[in-house]
UniProtKB/TrEMBL annotation, chain A:
Organism of this sequence: Ceratotherium simum simum (Southern white rhinoceros)
Protein name: Phospholipid-transporting ATPase
Boundaries of every P-type ATPase C-terminal domain copy: 661-914
Similarity field: Belongs to the cation transport ATPase (P-type) (TC 3.A.3) family. Type IV subfamily.
EC number: 7.6.2.1
SUPFAM superfamilies found in the cross-reference section: Calcium ATPase, transmembrane domain M (SSF81665), HAD-like (SSF56784), Metal cation-transporting ATPase, ATP-binding domain N (SSF81660)
Residues that span the membrane, as ranges: 103-126, 157-176, 677-698, 725-745, 775-798, 810-833, 845-868, 874-900
InterPro entries: ATPase_P-typ_cyto_dom_N, ATPase_P-typ_P_site, ATPase_P-typ_TM_dom_sf, HAD-like_sf, HAD_sf, P-type_ATPase_IV, P_typ_ATPase, P_typ_ATPase_c
Automatic annotation (TrEMBL), chain B:
PANTHER family the record matches: CELL CYCLE CONTROL PROTEIN 50, CELL CYCLE CONTROL PROTEIN 50A
Name of the featured protein: Cell cycle control protein
Pfam families per record: CDC50
Membrane topology: Multi-pass membrane protein
Family that this chain belongs to: Belongs to the CDC50/LEM3 family.
Subcellular location: Apical cell membrane; Cytoplasmic vesicle, Secretory vesicle membrane; Golgi apparatus; Membrane
Region span, Disordered: 1-28
Transmembrane intervals: 44-70, 324-346
Length: 991, 361
């Protein structure tokens, strides 16, 4: 975040005729294009050059704040604008499930082609003899006889491809897309992911990655605003070597004298109430007056510096509501609202206002500061903008008295070396102490300029700013020249509070087998202390450091040493701290070594990271041999690159604008929501879609294999077993809804258990539900079911006996319909077996699908359809159902098919239960009986028309015990071990 | 750099909650559906819940299986191959195409009497009625009596669509290859002369086929007039309107024809030929004894290694004689029962480990 002032290109309305403006615009365009030019305000102003730089450029999305209108020129609108670039890199994210889905698809494609080739070859070996190819009763037409052999071969192959093509479930993609789109609504609807204070609910920007939430192995998180609130509170300061704490708008000194400030930190010496505002007006305080006056002067200067050296904007006008940045906060008495691009600055200015030095505003070139009601006007001469290389900013102001001051503010590492006066050593100690407490520190220094010095500076600055070549280098030189010989005033410490439940969430993530990395731009000490306080680092952890590495070889040596230490001591957990410069060294040459060290550490903290470095770290983890799934959480614009790089990008809708939220895949209001998002939603989505994919392949294998087997009985003549309407409707109508509803509603474990037992997350890690083993199981299951359907029906026919009580015979269509009926029922009931969460919707679609099949078949077979060429199915289905044997055969085949599956499931559960299966057995008190669940349309016992009760009443023995059974979800949920993450208890009674 | 600030809070962002405005929050609705809290039955397949099912399946399936098996065993069935490929067979003389018409006689003995209605089937083997080219070679509109389709049959009927520039009625390969052997059954009683068993030729086709799906062309004229302008299928001896003397069994609604038109699923198939209705309760329909079958041998199957059979069978409520279903029921029932026992043992043995719901990391 650069604390530079937001300045806008303003071209005043000129009275000149348009042609002049046009000329100026041309110049302007040229100049902007070079991003390195000069702007001519007016023709008469031509002599006074104004610098024009990157800060004059309005990026897309900019809004006018303090002016009604501006003239601007579009400089560039192509594909390399910031927006377009962001957009481009955002598009391609594919989930692991999708990737394995494509693998399966290829396997099935191979099966399809193999089946077609086998069929074609067998057809031709069979047709070698004429008695099979063209018996007297089944002659070919002239045309068929004369077509060329190769052409016939190809057309036969293609015909087989068409016949078997249903094995590639095209409807899978449609269903998956629908599932993802509809399923993603549940995240936004979740009350547990709704943040009351900010009125933010979770936001889903892409529905492609829902299931990826269940696969996360690495979490990369930003610190500021993500782990912390990003609500900066001014806490302490060190002025002239004395530490003060702020309490209720007063400064309280921490030590009795400057010398004893190294004493115990947390001693609350209330006795030394030190009201600065009081001090500045009357000097009737204290014992040693001269000392005090000196002190007061320092204090005064310190807070003046704080309230002058910034780029905070002010607004006392109530704006239209859209423009209000997230920083707005009203100061009770004066109704002043500060805006700043950095929350630290705002906190500082606000603190100064509380203490009594109120920044009123800046108009044109002056800044107004009200000191205890007395207005002072400072002329703002120059702003030396913040940049991340210098890590400081300065202003040059002219005090009302005419004195010219330079106030500088910046990171201690960049300010202290420039200081020549002030309590440098004490302040350095204080700054370190602040950092240890996890506070963010800034050092403040000043320099009084003589008018001669100022003139020199002014000239140099102007030259540099208007330089046409190497402006940046020249500016840097000038800044270097100006910001020297500073006198240290003191340091500020701003606290950034940890968000709610951050340590619990990090602990839960770790229990779920997820590695957490904290990537922050903060300094080493602050980062470590925040890491400790948020539970990222434990006290018991052995913390390894890779910091301040200057050279390649040194870095490599250090890395090897760390690796050795980890090897020696692998009982204890290790934490690793890396800083940005060391990281770039480590990544440049010793990537592998570094990754080895990192993988063996249970917690990694990277501090002093540039945004691009964050993204690079993630990329490295992504392409490491295990190809883990990464998730990045961040809240600011500097996290965007990492959010986009990671497999799943989560934006925190925090105080730092919405850029992260908009570029993310999912946006949540608080870090703690991550646990529900991953452990509950991620887990569910993964299970749902994994089963969806497997089931789809399974049901299409069931569907098409009988057709393949039938070819062996019909001379490979491509005769279809099922009627074409059944072929079409199988995937669309008969079997589509149960799986779709399953994939939207399934909850194989109670969500509370999932959330309370993060270890369950490990059960689905590494895409386990879509491993080759499970895939093979489903495929083999599909084939075996298909064999049972087909050969069961074949054996039922035996020597083609009559199946009807009147001795009449069935034909080929009845045979196909028998197979199809068994298949529809089996496939639907198989889905029912997979379902662990039977709401009335599930009941409706599952039994409804079967009923629909019967009703449809009655209807379809009951009419001679006028527009159909052949009436193959006329009364076939009804005849089939009028056969007792057919009914018995259907029941037998369905039971046999499911038998295999049930036996496998039960034995697996009995002999090697997984954690998930164990967790399913945990009794929850929200158990609904099967019959009841059919007619429970919403929550509450009252709406649950108990079928059982109704039956009992009808039979005439109403038992009150049944009614008293409670299952309302508002009951206090069980508090089992480690119930560390019960978010909000459910408020179901309010609906 | 300076623009970061401006780019950040863009239009869609806005204040988190508009102060003073309508109390419109973005709070999601607290409904059971949206919170995924719909009341639900949550069944879990554990040994405990599945065990009773296994036993119940076993207990239900085994008796059903035994019942079906016994029923199937009580069905009498005799199959007589009269293809004549065996030189000793009386019908072997008919294999050569020169002998026309060829009549042969096969003797057989019924060891047990057939009671109740007896059904006479003819069976063909290696005859691929389910070949795609064959199955689709028909015109259902023509068979339904559509006058336009009668004179202009569907293209699917090729190459049996027209002969000598006249449309074939009924067209197509199926109709063309209609079975045309005539079977007669005689009982050789104690007397010197055999008695002809009366064979009923109606009631062998599906009622809906005979009355709805198949119809002669409309009109009150004699059938010959209605079929004017068409020609008989190439392989037929007589035109379609001469299939039977009775008018309600002639033309497209001839039941032998309808039965043939229902293509079989597998290359070995049977088709119902005639019914032998039981006379009264005292006498069996076909008493045990010696019979002979008189065959007018027309249908050539030798060229494709086919076989021809005549089957006499009684029928139970669930169809013809097939032990498969009964055996399968008994087998599945027994396996289910057995697995139930195995599960019971396992459940008992591992009770401790499975009942505790501790989750190991």
């Amino acid at each position: 975040m650069s604390p530079t002032r937001s300045r806008f290109v303003q071209i005043h309305r000129s009275d000149d005729d348009n042609s002049t403006i046009g000329r100026n615009f041309k110049l302007f365009l040229l100049v902007l294009y070079l991003l390195n030019g000069e702007k001519f305000k007016h023709q008469e102003d031509l002599c006074s050059k104004k610098p024009l730089g990157p800060e004059s450029l309005l990026l897309r999305g900019a809004r006018l704040k303090n002016t009604k209108e501006i003239f601007g020129v579009a400089v560039y609108t192509g594909m390399e604008t910031k927006m377009a670039l962001n957009y481009k890199s955002k598009s391609q994210k594919r989930s692991a499930v999708e990737k394995s889905m494509n693998t399966f698809l290829i396997i099935y494609l191979i099966i399809l082609i193999a089946e077609a080739i086998i069929s074609t070859i067998l057809k031709y070996s069979w047709q070698a003899e004429e008695k099979w190819d063209e018996p007297w009763y089944n002659q070919k037409t002239e045309h068929q006889r004369n077509s060329s052999k190769i052409l016939r071969f190809i057309s036969d192959f293609l015909a087989f491809l068409v016949l078997y093509n249903f094995i590639i479930p095209i409807s899978l993609y449609v269903t998956v897309e629908m599932q993802k789109f509809l399923g993603s609504f549940f995240i936004g609807w979740d009350l547990d992911l709704y943040h009351e204070e900010s009125d933010q609910k979770a936001q889903v920007n892409t529905s492609d990655l829902n299931e990826e939430l269940g696969q996360v192995e690495y979490v990369f998180t930003d610190k500021t605003g993500t782990l912390t609130e990003n609500e900066m509170q001014f806490r302490e300061c060190s002025i002239n070597g004395i530490k003060y704490q702020e309490s209720n708008g007063r400064l309280v000194s921490e030590g009795p004298t400057p010398d004893s400030s190294e004493g115990p930190f947390y001693r609350n010496s209330l006795s030394h109430l030190n009201n600065l505002s009081h001090l500045t007006t009357s000097s009737s305080f204290g014992t040693s007056l001269e000392n005090e006056i000196e002190l007061i002067k320092k204090h005064d200067l310190f807070f003046k510096a704080v309230s002058l050296c910034h780029t905070v904007q002010i607004s006392n006008v109530q704006t239209d509501g859209i423009g209000d940045g997230p920083w707005q906060s009203s100061l009770a008495p004066s109704q002043l609202e500060y805006y700043a691009s950095s929350p630290d600055e705002k906190a500082l200015v606000e603190a100064a206002a509380r203490i009594g030095i109120v920044f009123i505003g800046n108009s044109e070139d002056t800044m107004e500061v009200k000191t205890l009601g007395k207005l002072e006007r400072y002329k703002l001469l120059h702003v030396l903008e913040f940049d991340s290389d210098r890590r400081r900013m300065s202003v040059i102001v002219q005090a009302p008295s005419g004195e010219k001051f330079l106030f500088a503010k910046g990171a201690e590492s960049s300010v202290l070396p420039k200081c020549i006066g002030g309590e440098i050593e004490t302040t350095r100690i204080h700054v370190d102490e602040f950092a240890l407490k996890g506070l963010r520190t800034l050092c403040i220094a000043y320099r009084q300029l003589t008018s001669k010095e100022y003139e020199d500076i002014d000239r140099r600055l102007f030259e540099a700013r208007t330089a046409l070549q190497q402006r940046e280098e020249k500016l840097a030189d000038v800044f270097q020249f100006i910001e020297k010989d500073l006198v240290l005033l003191g340091a500020t410490a701003v606290e950034d509070r940890l968000q709610d439940k951050v340590p619990e969430t990090i602990e839960a993530l770790r229990m779920a087998g997820i590695k957490v990395w904290v990537l922050t731009g903060d300094k080493h000490e602050t980062a470590v202390s925040v890491s400790l306080s948020c539970g990222h680092f434990h006290r018991t952890m052995n913390i390894l450091e890779l910091t301040n590495q200057k050279s390649d070889s040194e870095c490599a040596e250090q890395l090897r040493q760390l690796a050795r230490r980890i090897e020696e001591d692998h009982v204890i957990q290790h934490g690793l701290v890396v800083d940005g410069t060391s990281l770039s060294l480590a990544l440049r040459e010793h990537e592998k070594l570094f990754m080895d060290v990192c993988r063996n550490c249970s917690a990694v903290l990277c501090c002093r990271m540039a945004p691009l470095q964050k993204a690079k770290v993630i990329r490295l983890i992504k392409i490491s041999p295990e190809k883990p799934i990464t998730l990045a959480v961040g809240d600011g614009a500097n996290d965007v690159s990492m959010i986009q790089e990671a497999h799943v990008g989560i934006g925190i809708m925090g105080k730092e604008g919405r850029q992260a939220a908009r570029n993310s895949d999912y946006a949540i209001a608080r870090f703690k929501f991550l646990s529900k998002l991953l452990f509950v939603h991620g887990h569910f989505y993964y299970i749902r879609i994994a089963t969806l994919v497997q089931y789809f392949f399974y049901k299409n294998v069931c569907f098409i294999t009988p057709q393949f087997l039938y070819q062996f009985y019909c001379l490979f003549s491509q005769q279809t077993l099922y009627d074409s309407v059944y072929l079409t409707l199988y995937n669309i109508c008969f079997t589509s809804l149960p799986i779709l509803v399953y994939s939207l509603l399934e909850q194989h474990i109670d969500p509370h258990i999932l959330q309370n037992k993060p270890t369950l997350y490990r059960d689905i890690s590494k895409n386990r539900q879509l491993s080759i083993k499970t895939f093979l199981y489903w495929t083999i299951l599909g084939f075996s079911h298909a064999f049972i359907f087909f050969f069961g029906s074949c054996f039922l026919m035996g020597k083609d006996i009559s199946l009807l009580g009147n001795g009449q015979m069935f034909g080929n269509w009845t045979f196909g319909t028998l197979v199809f009926t068994v298949m529809v029922i089996t496939v639907t009931v198989k889905m029912a077996l997979e379902t662990h969460f039977w709401t009335w919707i599930n009941h409706f679609v599952t039994w409804g699908s079967i009923i629909f099949y019967f009703v449809f078949s009655f209807f379809y077979g009951g009419i001679l359809w006028p527009f159909l060429g052949s009436q193959n199915m006329y009364f076939v289905f009804i005849q089939l159902l009028s056969s007792g044997s057919a009914w018995f055969a259907i029941i037998l085949m369905v039971v046999t098919c499911l038998f295999l599956d049930i036996v496998k499931k039960v034995f697996d559960r009995q002999l090697h239960p997984t954690n998930t299966e164990k967790a399913q057995l945990i009794k929850t008190n929200s158990s609904v009986k099967c019959l009841d669940s059919m007619c429970c349309f919403s929550e509450g016992e009252a709406t649950c028309a108990s079928v059982g009760r109704m039956l009992e009443r009808v039979i005439g023995r109403c038992s009150p015990t049944h009614v008293s059974r409670l299952w309302s979800a508002s009951d206090p949920f069980y508090t089992n071990d480690r119930s560390i993450l019960t978010l909000s208890t459910m408020e179901s009674s309010t609906c | 750099m300076a623009m970061n600030y401006n780019a950040k809070d863009e239009v869609d962002g806005g204040p988190p909650c508009a102060p003073g405005g309508a109390a419109k929050t973005r709070r999601p609705d607290n409904t059971a559906f949206k919170q995924q809290r719909l009341p639900a039955w949550q069944p879990i397949l554990t040994a405990g819940t599945v065990l009773p099912t296994f036993f119940i399946i076993g207990l239900i399936f085994i008796p059903i299986g035994i019942g079906i098996f016994v029923t199937s065993n009580n069905i009498r069935e005799i199959e007589i191959d009269y293809t004549g490929t065996d030189p000793s067979s009386p019908c072997s003389k008919c294999l050569s195409p020169d002998v026309t018409p060829c009549v042969c006689t096969i003797n057989f003995t019924l060891e047990q009497s057939f009671e109740g209605n007896v059904f006479m089937y003819y069976g063909l083997s290696n005859f691929y009625q389910n070949h795609r080219r064959y199955v689709k070679s028909r015109d259902d509109s023509q068979l339904n009596g559509d006058p336009s389709a009668l004179l202009n049959p569907s293209k699917e009927c090729e190459p049996y669509r027209s002969n000598e520039d006249k449309p074939i009625a009924p067209c197509g390969a199926i109709a063309n290859s209609m079975f045309n052997d005539t079977l007669e059954l005689f009982l050789i009683g104690n007397e010197s002369y055999p008695t002809l068993i009366p064979l009923k030729k109606k009631g062998i086709a599906w009622w809906t086929d005979k009355n709805v799906k198949f119809r002669n062309p409309p009109g009150g004229e004699p059938l010959e007039e209605l079929f004017k302008g068409t020609t008989k299928p190439v392989n037929w001896v007589k035109p379609v309107y001469r299939l039977d003397s009775e008018s309600d069994n002639n033309g497209f609604i001839n039941e032998d024809f309808i039965v043939w038109m229902r293509t079989a699923a597998l290359p070995t198939f049977r088709k119902l030929y005639r019914l032998i209705e039981r006379k009264n309760d005292l006498h069996p329909t076909l008493p045990a004894g010696r019979y002979y079958l008189n065959i007018t041998y027309n249908y050539p199957v030798h060229s494709f290694d086919g076989r021809k059979r005549m089957i006499l069978s009684t029928i139970s409520w669930m169809g013809g004689k097939n032990p498969f279903l009964g055996i399968a029921y008994i087998a599945v029932g027994s396996i289910s029962f057995l697995l139930g026992v195995v599960l019971l043992v396992i459940n008992h043995k591992y009770r401790n480990s499975s009942n505790t719901a501790d989750i190991t990391i």
